[in-house]
Design goal:
This protein has 143 residues and is of the alpha+beta class. It has helices at residues 21-25, 62-69, 83-96, 98-104, 139-142, and strands at 14-20, 35-42, 47-55, 76-77, 80-81, 112-120, 125-128, 131-134. A hairpin with a 2-residue loop joins strand 4 and strand 5 (80-81).
């Protein structure tokens, strides 16, 4: 039996896909931290989710699985940050400047900022013309 995919927007969340930290914080940063894949927020719940979406290919051997997962260790090796480290760096910057981020989202100062790493076979979104509706991993968690 298949699962019904429910978007954050269907659950009452607002979303912004692929948004730069400099746009959220309205200030220059020490370097380019890349985009937040999906920024989702709920004024009624007082929560913000910083969502990193990765398309993990179907792998057949242990070696292939190990190779792909090696990009998600949260490390910096020889000045190169892996996917998880880049996400965690973005989270750290937004947490450090949380009041500016909450102001941009027009949320109360007590709102909570959380991070999430979403690992799906397809990017967790449904394209609706020019709009993107990210898929919520668990309606019970975010509904």
């Amino acid at each position: 039996m298949g699962h019904k995919q429910i978007s954050y927007t269907e659950l009452g969340w607002q979303v912004a896909p692929e948004i730069k930290l400099t746009k959220i914080l309205r200030m220059p940063l020490d370097r380019d931290y890349g985009d937040v894949d999906v920024l989702a927020w709920s004024p009624t719940k007082g929560r913000v989710l910083i969502i990193e979406c990765k398309d993990l290919q179907l792998k057949k051997t242990y070696g292939e699985i190990t190779e792909q997962l090696s990009d998600f260790r949260g490390l910096e090796i020889d000045g190169k940050r892996d996917f998880l480290r880049k996400h965690l760096d973005r989270v750290d910057v937004l947490q450090k400047h949380r009041l500016k981020a909450l102001e941009f989202l027009k949320l109360e100062s007590h709102a909570r900022i959380d991070e999430e790493l979403t690992k799906l076979d397809i990017r967790p979104s449904i394209k609706l013309g020019a709009k993107i509706a990210p898929i919520a991993p668990s309606p019970s968690t975010y509904g």
